[in-house]
Design goal:
The structure is a single chain. The two termini are 24 Å apart. The chain is built from two helices and eight strands, in the order E-E-E-E-E-E-E-E-H-H. The protein has one domain: Nuclear Transport Factor 2, Chain: A (Roll). By secondary structure, it is α+β, with helices and mostly antiparallel strands. Helix content is 20%, strand content 39%. The strands form two sheets. Strands 2, 3, 4, 5 and 6 form a five-stranded antiparallel sheet that branches. The chain has a three-stranded mixed sheet with strand order 1-7-8, with no helix packed on it.
Length: 122
């Protein structure tokens, strides 16, 4: 799955006080060509199968010190999850905070490092 397809997915409405507990999830990552900075960069897409349907979160990453993947821009996370409090949508700022918190708890950085090692790019 590519990051650009996430906005076209069916929205998943999620109450913010309910933990996301997928029964199956996976992470896809892609590598982009190196730019003038020579930093490795790419995109990651986390896909989670929930009772309500398939949720996806996508973000860009870049490496620092050659091997440590970090969020390229914490404010440009893409998702089809529409967060709610008492069935009302929350602000985009609160959504970004929640999604950053979610990504912090995923093991995405280790998976990106394994991806880079598998291509001898570590």
């Amino acid at each position: 799955m590519q990051a650009w397809t996430v906005p076209a997915m069916r929205p998943i409405f999620w109450q913010i006080d309910t933990p996301i507990r997928p029964y199956n999830s996976r992470l896809h990552t892609t590598l982009q060509p190196r730019d003038a900075t020579a930093a490795l960069r790419g995109q990651a897409v986390w896909i989670a199968h929930l009772d309500q349907g398939t949720a996806a979160v996508a973000w860009d990453w870049v490496t620092v010190r050659g091997v440590i993947p970090i969020l390229q821009d914490p404010l440009t996370i893409i998702t089809n999850i529409q967060l709610r409090v008492d069935d009302e949508a929350i602000t985009s700022t609160d959504t970004n905070l929640y999604l950053n918190h979610l990504l912090h708890h995923l093991d995405w950085q280790a998976k990106v490092r394994r991806f880079l090692r598998s291509r001898n790019l570590h």
